[in-house]
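Entry 14. Structure prediction run on the chain below.
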Amino acid sequence: MKKYLFILITMVFMLAGCGTSNKSSGTVEKSKKNQEDTGILAKIKEDGVINIGIEGVYPPFNYFDKDNKLIGFDVDIANEITKRMGVKPNYVPTPWDTIIGGLLTKKYDIILSSMAITDERKQKVDFTEPYYHTGAQLFINKENKDIKDPEKDIKGKKIGVAIGTTFEEKATELGANVITYKSDLLTFQDLANKRVDGVLTDKAVGARLIKEQNYPFKFVGDMILKDAAGIALNKNEEALKAEINKHLKAMMDDGTYAEISKKWFGEDIR
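Output returned:
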């Protein structure tokens, strides 16, 4: 009897041990899966959609054409990255002065809208590797004879800039009477109407607007600010950042990036 009791007790402990082992194994597997699914990347891939904050009024980088279709360099870059990720892009047009706030409140997953990488912005959001480099140029009316050196001659002058940009910071630093606008389209309209003495914006953007609208403007001096543009995302989204950087690098290596860049600018602007 004692012998059978001993065997019974032994079997109970063996079964308990097996249950513990299975439970432990299941916990490890669940923990491993949770680690893999950490961050927004897993949800993006599960849903098959990535939400992208974009301004939509910054030609030739991102803007709506006459058919109200969102186009531009940024859009082509985003479409290629998302294609390689195996997901579809959902663009969320957002005013520039609220675009970071929209990311922080998770209205979208990333911002791909020609955002310059700055120390101030890096305190709030994270950035991928730069996807292009650009510079700030001062534009004035052709008849303007007062401004010859943008770094010296704009002190006290009315200079139009898009609000919340590095151009606004630079114009303020140089002592200009800074007038802020919702977009570069509006700054150029006011320059045409002589409500401002000049506009400080991206050189490629300014050149495109002058060509498209036939504005009687010219640029003066050299570029006074050089920026690297990155794709912004929320802090601690390391998996998503690594995924985007991987595809961005592959695009640059295989010639796709250069093809897109030359389509819009005639040169590689990386």
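The longest strand covers residues 217-233.
Filed with the rest of this week's runs.
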